[in-house]
Amino acid sequence: MRGAAEAAGLVAYEEAKREGELRYVIVREAADGDAMVVLVVAPRTPRAKLEQVANALSRHPAIRSVLSLENDRRDGAIVPSGSTAHVLLGKGTLVEEIAGAKVEVVPASFYR
What we know:
This protein is an alpha+beta fold. 16% of the residues lie in helices and 34% in strands. The strands form 2 sheets. Strands 1-2-3-4 form a 4-stranded mixed β-sheet. A two-stranded antiparallel sheet has the order 5-6.
């Protein structure tokens, strides 16, 4: 992830200054090894940079989807309620099996 972000010129976000682009990276891995990567970014982060990161991450055999999600909050929320994720690669969900039932997990999902 770090190499892909650096190659795309994606700048790490600094909370104190409210400057930069990449705030957080969320990686969700299903029991079968499939993974979803969510790039939580500041508003106005260039889509071209995000697509470049997604393209680089697509080379990893476990990554099934890469999404971006804008966050301009100052209260420490990583994934603000009501936020919309934008699919950069793949389907945009991760299928997890819980107690024998297949469940589609989205970036804002909370489950154990």
